[in-house]
Amino acid sequence: MENTGKLFGKTLFITGASRGIGLAIALKAAKDGANIVLAAKTAEPHPKLPGTIYTAAAEIERAGGKALPCIVDVRDEKQVQEAVKKAVQKFGGIDIVINNASAISITGTVDTEMKRYDLMHNINTRGTFMVSKECIPYLQKSSHPHILNISPPLNMHPGWFSRNVAYTMAKYGMSMCVLGMSDELKPFGIGVNALWPKTTVNTAATSLLGGDTSVNHSRKPEIMADAAYAILTSDPKTTTGNFFIDDELLLKRGVTNFDQYCQNVETKDELFRDIFVGDPTDGIMTFKSDPRQSPMYSKL
Question: Among this protein's residues, is 138 annotated catalytic?
Fold first, then answer.
């Protein structure tokens, strides 16, 4: 998807933006000349994970944007408040919030340690709620206000809960923020939406959980960045309350070449379906990279 310049001068507050999907979205917006607030924990290089808020900031500046790296643990109210304050001081306000920071543990009830349960709920659900809460007063002053949560469609089928109930609850908490806030904030013209990938995406989490096999059967983070860009350049007054799937949205916006997003084009017909998409009784499912040929494709 080509950049249009519509995000020029807009300020995006992105959690978990030092790598992966968060960084890809930041770089896409930076090409328009947007201001990016990188709210993430990684200030020092991690032994297993690439990138810091400072290396990400340098990439954003090279891409044409302006960057403000902020050390933020979204569980910490004071750190969130301080980052929001710095963003407003530097850029004059906040136009867009991307709640991307997330923790994952694909474990059953007995195997889920309570410290891991608390981590997921405090980052995913509580962090999303708190970041949104702190930014809303500034979004109300924006001419183009959006909140976008990287979270799945709400589906109460027990299959999505039985294998990993703690993680599902935490991610669905982010989606319930979309469900509630989209209606709550409609009078202020603030668009609130969710975006989720149909396939696994090559991120640090994918690599750690599934190794090279998962990575080779995944798409690049750029597909989520392009889909997010399509949402964030839309009118927030009319684009709100949606639970978008990345390739279905892009197809609707005229994208037809999905090979460009494949991590390994040789496995384009054997992509791994992401969790929370399709039939939960199927297990891991592979399908063609063109969503028009996928049995799970449905028009929005």
Answer: no
